[in-house]
Amino acid sequence: MAEAVGAPDRAGLATAGSTRRANGGLQVDHRLERVPDTPGVVEVRAVASLPDSITQFEVSAPAGATVTGTEGLESGGDRRDYSWDGSTDRPSITYRVAVNRTFTFGTYRSVDVGEWAVVTNGDVESAYTYWYRGSNPGYESTYAVADGEEGYAGAELTYLGAYEVYEASHAGTTVEFVVSDATTMAADRSAVAETVGGAAASFDSGTSDDRLTVFVVSSLLNLGYTPNLGEPEYLVQGPVPVDGPPTTWTHEFVHTRQGWQTTTEMEWLDEGSAEYYGYLLSMQQGRTPYESFRALLADDEYAGADLTAPDSWVSDNVEYDKGARVVAALDYRIRRATDGEKTFEAVIGRLNDREEAVTYEAFKTVVREVTDRQFGVYIDSIVTGAGNTTVPADPFRYTTGPDADNDGDGLTTSEERAAGSHPFRTDTDDDGLPDGDEVDAGTDPTLADTDDDGLPDGVEREEGTDPTVADTDGDGLNDGREDALGTDSTVADTDGDGLEDGEELDGGTDPILADSDTDGLEDGEEADGQTDPTLADTDDDGLPDGEEFDGETDPTVADTDGDGLEDGEELDEGTDPTVADTDGDGLNDGREVELGTDPTVADTDGDGLNDGDEVDEGTDPLTANTATATSADTGGSTSADGTDGSGGAGTAGGTGQGGDDGGTGDNGPTVLPAALAALALVGAGARLARRL
Known about the structure:
Blueprint: E1 2-4, E2 12-15, E3 26-34, E4 41-49, E5 54-60, E6 66-71, E7 73-75, E8 81-84, E9 92-98, E10 101-102, E11 108-112, E12 117-120, H1 121-124, E13 127-132, E14 139-145, E15 151-153, E16 157-160, E17 163-170, E18 173-180, H2 189-202, E19 211-217, E20 224-225, E21 233-237, H3 248-255, H4 268-284, H5 290-298, H6 318-337, H7 344-353, H8 360-371, H9 376-383, H10 413-419, H11 435-441, H12 457-463, H13 479-485, H14 501-507, H15 523-529, H16 545-551, H17 567-573, H18 589-595, H19 611-617, E22 627-629, E23 637-639, H20 674-691
Parallel strand pairs: 1-13, 3-14, 18-19, 19-21
Antiparallel strand pairs: 1-2, 2-13, 3-4, 4-9, 5-8, 5-13, 6-9, 7-8, 10-11, 11-12, 12-16, 15-16, 17-18, 20-21, 22-23
Helix pairs in contact: 3-4, 4-5, 4-6, 7-8
């Protein structure tokens, strides 16, 4: 900084920094470098270029600095104060100064760790006083990195150490990023440029810069810091995201648009307006949720604090929290009083135009001028007391115009209002589809499940179902039910078995398996053929329905040929389940199984007579040589092969009747199986009937 002093024989005295020099004015160039092996200290060489109008020039090194050399300056007896001796028009001073400076809340605003350093230029600048003839030549202070040192110097901040520089532009604003090698920039540079450029385009503060410089630094420093209000330069920690909260990128941007000076009673306005607009600008670009913005306005922790008395604050957060709520409350009332034509930005613009420091009374006057309303009593109640700072929860009050799309969902503010959707929520109903896509598709952006089928609209879009129709494929099952079952909501018959999924569910079959009962027949075939698609063996005959269908037996009748054997038994026996008498011997297969004869061989015992004939004749179809008793009173029997008769059972053991050849019978009975004996009696009776 510098000061100029007026005297009777001089035109005036100026303080460096109070004006900007015209061409040919006073300029002091500062060169910075780290001091090897002495972390926390930097060396500054300041060289002044004095115009002819300068008659006297004095330098005071920063408090605590150690002067290591001068040229064209002589000591005034104090190790900090020096005067120009006139020997050169480029006097210089070199000094070393400690730079580790912290805020009251503990984080650094300047720091040197040896490997790298971040310096707030104002912390290391000397004080300059000059006298001049004629008009004030003005003063300009510049900063650069010393020869042989690595780093980047801005107007307000200097970084010493390894770094990279990037640029990104948006909406006419170019952002230059100076990124320290000691950190990683978490936020995408293009996204930051869009955010800051978008904020610059929409924030009307009466001041503007088309270029910003942002130093991206280690987390040792403050989350964000703007050294000089109204100047387009600030720093942000590398890990800070662009999506808030926190809204550091936009918060610090607002500081670059605060071109005022305030009295102590208005210090709160710096952080209060930056906090409010930091959230608002970020929200208007879809970077910060509306809920976070509302939470900021609802926090009344410091409601009773007197903002005009900083010494009474119980926390450094008072100016951020309550200050933001006061600005929000006034912004809302200004919008309402002017039918939305003006906002608190108009107040900021007028304050920036003031040359004098902003006092509390001046602040209230500006609010009255903007609104043409008397707000003094209300302002007193909310600034110095616990007055009502509540604002309505109407998001449309904070949009940037009827044609704006603040949340980037494809709908303008007017369209969002018509659809009932939220202007600051890309997906109002959280169904996975942006509101604009929903309006285009005919779904309701305020309902997550437009067709009430159990699936959110976004899921339906991914799965290819129609979010406006509950049952996309018309199979009798709504899409949500199909999703739970694992069936295809876009295909009526998921397993292709001829039955729609709804039918299968009603009928108890599996809509994912074509053959629910794994019997070899698809469910649709079974339904058409009257078999039960949930039972592999509908008639419980031991054969799966599919096998019966292939083998031409009736899958609905256990004994297809009615022979007394179920179809499955017949396959076990080797008989034909479609023919009652497989071997054509006159006995059906079931009868043969009862008798023990072979139903697949007509002449089981190979004696020349079919089993049926033997049964008719009363002979044993299981034995080749048998005789049958003719009657209880005649005795004798006919041999099975028609040759020799055996002794019959006479009443007293007499001679039996022989067969065709008439052999003499032996005394004593021939014992037959009970079933065959009965059949023999039946056969004998039949012969007797024929003889009679």
